[in-house]
Amino acid sequence: MLRIMHFFNIKPGADEARMFHLINHGLLGYTRAYGCLERKTWKLVDATAQGIPAATAAYVNEVLWPSQKAADAFARDWMGDVPNEVKEFRSELDSGVETVLTVRYVDETG
User: What pTM does this model have?
Assistant: First the structure.
């Protein structure tokens, strides 16, 4: 299994509830067709680096994929030539969400 962590912020003026809906439900609809198993979003409390406060994003979204191949196929298609409805969805999401960091890792189930 491949897990992807997207650390992000909501852009000033964006509707937080709407952005969470797009991330957790709208994106799940698109990604499921590629095998995505789950999406979850949490608000981060804080971050430290050796006990010293560290800059971080405000939120993290975790995505579970059955394989790196499935995740890569979605990413390739998502950024490629997509139907207008997908372009509009992607544009709305991009207008309200700023990704700070993305981390990908294989979990214990391999």
Answer: 0.87
